[in-house]
Amino acid sequence: MSSMGDKVKIEIFGESHSAAIGATICGLPAGEKIDIDELCAFMERRAPGRDATSTARKEPDRPEFLCGIVDGVLTGAPLTAIIHNSDQHSRDYSDLRVRPRPSHADYAASVRYGGANDIRGGGPFSGRLTAPLCIGGGIALQLLAKRGIYIGAHLASVAGVKDTAFDAVEIDKDTLLSAGKKPFPVLDGAAGEKMREAILSAKADGDSVGGVIECAVIGMPAGHGGPLFEGVEGKISSAMFAIPAVKGIEFGSGFACTEMLGSEHNDPFVYEGEKVVTTTNNSGGIQGGITNGMPIIFRVAMKPTPSILKEQNTVNLETKENTTLLIHGRHDPCVAARAVPAVEAAAALCILDLLEGNN
Amino acid sequence: MSSMGDKVKIEIFGESHSAAIGATICGLPAGEKIDIDELCAFMERRAPGRDATSTARKEPDRPEFLCGIVDGVLTGAPLTAIIHNSDQHSRDYSDLRVRPRPSHADYAASVRYGGANDIRGGGPFSGRLTAPLCIGGGIALQLLAKRGIYIGAHLASVAGVKDTAFDAVEIDKDTLLSAGKKPFPVLDGAAGEKMREAILSAKADGDSVGGVIECAVIGMPAGHGGPLFEGVEGKISSAMFAIPAVKGIEFGSGFACTEMLGSEHNDPFVYEGEKVVTTTNNSGGIQGGITNGMPIIFRVAMKPTPSILKEQNTVNLETKENTTLLIHGRHDPCVAARAVPAVEAAAALCILDLLEGNN
Amino acid sequence: MSSMGDKVKIEIFGESHSAAIGATICGLPAGEKIDIDELCAFMERRAPGRDATSTARKEPDRPEFLCGIVDGVLTGAPLTAIIHNSDQHSRDYSDLRVRPRPSHADYAASVRYGGANDIRGGGPFSGRLTAPLCIGGGIALQLLAKRGIYIGAHLASVAGVKDTAFDAVEIDKDTLLSAGKKPFPVLDGAAGEKMREAILSAKADGDSVGGVIECAVIGMPAGHGGPLFEGVEGKISSAMFAIPAVKGIEFGSGFACTEMLGSEHNDPFVYEGEKVVTTTNNSGGIQGGITNGMPIIFRVAMKPTPSILKEQNTVNLETKENTTLLIHGRHDPCVAARAVPAVEAAAALCILDLLEGNN
Amino acid sequence: MSSMGDKVKIEIFGESHSAAIGATICGLPAGEKIDIDELCAFMERRAPGRDATSTARKEPDRPEFLCGIVDGVLTGAPLTAIIHNSDQHSRDYSDLRVRPRPSHADYAASVRYGGANDIRGGGPFSGRLTAPLCIGGGIALQLLAKRGIYIGAHLASVAGVKDTAFDAVEIDKDTLLSAGKKPFPVLDGAAGEKMREAILSAKADGDSVGGVIECAVIGMPAGHGGPLFEGVEGKISSAMFAIPAVKGIEFGSGFACTEMLGSEHNDPFVYEGEKVVTTTNNSGGIQGGITNGMPIIFRVAMKPTPSILKEQNTVNLETKENTTLLIHGRHDPCVAARAVPAVEAAAALCILDLLEGNN
Questions:
Q1: Could you tell me the residue ranges of all domains in chain D?
Q2: What is the ipTM of this complex?
Q3: Residue C233 half-sphere exposure, CB side, CA atoms within 13 Å?
Q4: Mutate to test the interface with B, among C6, C10, C18 (most CBs of B within 10 A)
Q5: pLDDT tens across D147-165, in order?
Q6: How far, in Å, CA of C78 to CA of A44, rounded?
Q7: 0.95 exceeded by the pTM?
């Protein structure tokens, strides 16, 4: 379970302060050309320092390809790309083993790994590990675009401030991809300004906020997925929970469906020319675990960054006493913003895997 | 992906009207005694006809063990158990291929399988397939109980009517298991009555309602799971989406976390005797994808049953014209009620897999 | 690892004396018609009592289909078929736990399963478990034949008596399939008679003999498989070792290649019309783990049946003393003969998996 | 299938002339100390230029650790180590696409990858890819040694010249590991000299020779593995076929068992103090797919290096004509010698996976 995918499989490795982080992607189709500049531009979207609301830490996230690609063309062998960890502060992290940060992985990981885990900068639990996810996902996005399948996401809400939602039934490609082209990934700029204010206000207070990311896939043909453990929702959901800070996911109408009547919720079929479509899309493009040709739509909930600059209660695992902790350092007051491309990347890998595996 | 689990693996087979449905579970620990009566009692909880709100269809869901168990003791070889499909109505289902039911799998599956899928009674998409899930899960629940790990669920809401929620920090075993002992699985009987009214009212109108199921795991030790694709949330979520009609899942504070500040959301650590606990449990027992020793808590959203007794718009796939459809037959007006043990079962299999796999 | 295959996956369950044995096969292509009579005829080939050299035990090996097939057409859902265990002798097997039979699984399994394993008739280690393998393999053989791919095997040697070998470069379909049509599966009837004599002679002496099975796949296109862990040899070999009593496998020239010069061993390429072929086939149709379009050829070594009717030295695990053992009952003096269809079945499942998975 | 293992999993990446080759190993036990010098010494054993019989090509095979290890201690996160490809000759390899080398992967791979595969130096099919296998295997060997499990291999034969075989019943650790300490890995130095002569003689003639490698595992407890697809032989065999040039594998008595009587072949049990052992070990330490506590013994057949300096017949894939080919460059006239540590490495990964997975 350290990798994801059946036919197109990604394995992510690295720790926040190890020599490098990276990913190996197997099962990519040989002979396809990858636009490396476009990939790097995609990677840039999750890089910090892109907006005043994100951490000031600079990470040159340009991937270095070790194998699997020659002159930009996929060879069919596993593709491995790495990013060297250069901007590390070599300070002492050992205190985190003694006084675990609330709602971080520190305590759980110390039990899991008997204290041997690399705790510097969060180790393998760092949001930085979404960079290799974006390498694989960025490649997948390009391969999908060649087949007329596009994936886009935006910040649906931050600290309760809501962006315009995607139209579930009809999403044009430009709208879908528009948020990704902005420094702050929203559809509605005015809503985005309010979100930024909320983030900066929390930041000024040493605090943090959460958010919801909405993602859609358009152009996906009907007939992929299956019942039970083959379902598309299960596949996408487990991919999303690989992104740090995700605490929930819902497809289509999601939790709201639990307050609807069947007669309201059912999506009536209708012909649009030769194509079977539905006039509503509460199903989020998936019925019985199988794509039905409508946009796949889902939303993920991201918790407020646990790294806050306020004194917090914790324990001292050495003295076995209760104590307090004050975290220092640079942190994103809202990880949701930078996670938008990670959500697209994880979705793209799932969709490509379904297509390449003929599932 | 037709099976779930790494060390303890379940494979489910069968179609609603095939000769039998069943499951093969591999990796169960040899030598453990299973209480078959207790297992059957668990299975009874998902059987129809238990409450006036569920379908009248009678299914004798007593599993027949083909192998893997001798005198109630697990042999260590794969355990296969089946349930014969006896109460089938041999009516003609071919119309469903021509006029797919809205928000059912009919259309998506016909594309997926080129029309060869067994469409009778929903085929492999039928909620009936949660019966074999409950065989595996019921066994897992017994094995977990021997280790002091208990799993219980209840209807957290139906049609917007809310049950009392579990106390996220401290759940005693009796409360946890209480809903499962009632014909209608709620903690608060009064809330249950209101839910039943909402269901029966929808039923009288030929309509259906959705609901939320809350599930908790207590006694789970800290230190299971891992970052990225090894996370416990991802594992549980993909298991839950294998249950028909699930459209969302959230852990701990879930979607509500997106409107909280980090300072509110973080779970402070404190010593409770020798044990490290948290004073709140917004994390739902999982941090960095790893269990932290607190109760694992999650909620799943279940859509209203798509089978409603009202005329609906759909298409005729033969004539390629728009048409209408009126479904007949016996259906659960709220699938959430009977899905409660299925949620427990899926969770139990995930937890046992983590423990047996030492993950 | 209790199942085999990536896209087309088989899971085998059952124990020699459990209620039933069977298999679930996932990933079979929906809509394909299976000839059940042909499948049963294939199953007959491994059934006992077909030749005087095999055990007299009668097993009605007609599979009962539980799901996944309607009117002989694959539905795309998992196909499960079982065979009830009817001809069991309900004698006491508990002595085998105390005094393990030499070169049987008795001792190793008792350690593995802490003594909880079903020991009756060999439990899951019985050669009887090749029957469900043949269900899956028999279906795979039919699906491959529709694509012009044929698989056949024969007894290449028994007790040192050699059958004619397949011509590695050019195998016509009739020759390939001829052995399978005979009660005793050899190409050369005279050699077969000598083998049968050797078997009956060993049997008369309460002893047993081993043998080599040669198997070939013709019509397989070039370009399936891959380097390292994706290799076709590795895939086929692990499938073969799932057959009880197999102790070795070799592809193409096999062990003989270790005494050849490169200049002798290399297979020169040449055009045969438009098609690239090789003038020798020491590679056995696989180069760099990938099929090259030539016949895939391999041989498996099967040990002499460990069940012999002679007194043998063993231990008493209760008293912890050395002792002796005299096994009674009906046994095949040469399991290789009945294993021929099992070898074809396992190969067919591997090949179909490669094709369906586009690997 | 691009990776191997269930609990301890290795994924190998890289191509002969890509920027780097490497491996990611997941599931290694956190907190264990690795001796990097010892690992490098193990890697040295497969490096070229160690004996006059191997290629003169110099490869500094010192692994660079990217993650998963801090101060020599395993962190529990995936461990990735790479080796930069420095000693590449940047000559033109494009002719290999047009005129494939006999018994190389050139032709099969060009079909598999539509001609997009990296053909330089053999791409992913190069024996060089056994270097990352040895990184993972070298770590596994150290972890196994801490548990009293040792693995050693030697050249059992080269060009028909035979080394002393391991004593199947009783192998002391010193003998087991002795061949690995010599530049030319044999037990019997005199036999080794004859082998070297045969190799140098073939080399002088521009030709190559094959060989057999025998490997043993001592100290392995009884009770690991299982029937059918869980068998230890199947697991080890598929690992061995990942090593380029392997064409066969046999366990215990192997192919010789096919000419033995059951009464000769069966391994009688006897008590050796408190321990159950067998007085012969034709089973090669595995019965019913499960370890029985005796040494695991197997032999792999390696074909003569296909790269020979003689004119060979091949095809021109562009002109579609028959033609000839004369390969230049530096090649091992006998790959078996350098493959000895690769065999140990692959075996070690299998054994560690069984133990860590509690299989």
A1: 3-356
A2: 0.97
A3: 36
A4: C18
A5: 999 999 999 999 999 999 9
A6: 44
A7: yes
